[in-house]
């Protein structure tokens, strides 16, 4: 099973090839260029570096949100474009689940946090132990105040991971015991995690869809939509 992983939900962009549980290649960029410019070259380089071709890809996995509206849309559209011509299967992967994946053996409560601005974070909580991730909460956009209340109930070590780690830690550390930051190397999402999670789902016969059914998961309205809604409410 050869899986192409695509990640473009936030500032960085990456592409990876996983074959039968082995990471063959991964290309990663975090230089501020738009994903519409960087993503396809990263995919092409990752495929070529693995010694394979697009024809060898059995499945396309993509982080379908939450995250940047533009980034998620580009990633999903790219995955659909690669999968549709040959009816390759697709696997949508939660950005927050992919963020937590590197800490799957941490024996801790792992909290994926992405900075959603305005004192909010995109967040999901997992109990990670013995190479398993047990989801405790669904993906959500929550205030840091509500996140603080949520995390106080855990008596295990709590590890923050993702690009919202610093802002969340600064807000939470005084009130949440046993709170730690993950290594800075885990700050940005990686396509390898997306592909690995997708392979697990394919092996368990779950989460596999067609390219036509692949859609973004934004969790909340865009800023333009929120402003329009507010304007209508005030009229």
Protein model, in words:
The protein is of the alpha/beta class and 235 residues long. The chain has 2 domains: 2-94 and 188-219, 2-Layer Sandwich (Nucleotidyltransferase, domain 5); 97-186, ATPase, nucleotide binding domain (Nucleotidyltransferase, domain 5, 2-Layer Sandwich), CATH 3.30.420. Helices cover 33% and strands 27% of the residues. It contains 7 helices and 11 strands. The protein has helices at residues 35-49, 69-83, 95-100, 144-151, 165-172, 191-203, 223-234, and strands at 2-7, 13-19, 22-29, 59-63, 89-93, 108-115, 120-129, 132-135, 140-143, 158-161, 179-181. Helix 1 (35-49) crosses helix 2 (69-83).
